[in-house]
């Protein structure tokens, strides 16, 4: 009975995060039952390769949403940065790294442009980025002269399509992939243990030790199973390493840095943040610069994945990124959200898209399902806030 009570207490105290984990597991289980090929090594690798750029966008978007803003332009920025990279590498004959650098510079400039109008002129982010969505899409057409450019080939193509394998050998599976995933699990366990000790030191409530150990074991089993599936196909995708590095960095930035605390403060209570000495304009400026930077990384990954640049690239990417954040627990009113939650929300979107494609669901039906899931996620957020207000 104590274990059951502990589980119930854990779920109640962390409803927003535990709910999306349960939803992800349920959706994966549903598609695995409906189509046994869903959990195949080939399909799991395909999910990683096809949806990483949305997850990268979600990392930046969740910070924007936490600060109480929104960015509708990221899909157009993905197209523009990919186009600039294509012109530099394909038309100009420059090395792959020059194309990547050019894309990153353009992304930073775009972010600074939008951050200036939001932070220092005072125009709402919704309006600025809506204008940016049109502006940067038009610039994409100008840069590409209304034609597609391809192929990149070489190292640039390997950014989103390459694999690291064979470094440690292995018969029928890649040992290097398993080692990397094993290190990831060990790092997660150490991080959770240190977090638990910190909460105990500050006399905060923590789950029982058996429940804590069970959580670590479950995560370890799932992660290592996923790593084994990748190891038995083609090994560790290069783009997955990039995503993991970004998740770690931005998790630390949002949870452990002064800037991260200021982002939460601005979104949670703007007036209180101003009275506390938080430089609100500077925070708003830099969250848009950061969004432009991450959108440029997503632009490089996407253009590498499709091995070219098209004027219509990135269409509706902003909606997928925003949906990932809200499904992952971000609040519509700002001040709430986590990078990990946005990643889980993005995975839910990716799993649904991939599963429906495997089952042959009509392209007309797929956005209907995604829209309903987003609506339910926002309704869940509103229910939680009302419930919390009633308990106070």
From TrEMBL:
It comes from the Bacteria. It is a multi-pass membrane protein. The chain crosses the membrane at residues 20-39, 51-70, 82-110, 117-136, 172-190, 211-228, 234-253, 283-302, 364-383. Coiled coil: none annotated. Keywords: Cell inner membrane, Cell membrane, Membrane, Sugar transport, Transmembrane, Transmembrane helix, Transport. It is found in: Cell membrane. InterPro entries: ABC_transp_permease. Part of the binding-protein-dependent transport system for D-xylose. Probably responsible for the translocation of the substrate across the membrane. PANTHER family: ABC TRANSPORTER PERMEASE PROTEIN YPHD-RELATED-RELATED, XYLOSE TRANSPORT SYSTEM PERMEASE PROTEIN XYLH. This is Xylose transport system permease protein XylH. It comes from Isoptericola hypogeus. The lineage of its organism: Bacteria, Bacillati, Actinomycetota, Actinomycetes, Micrococcales.
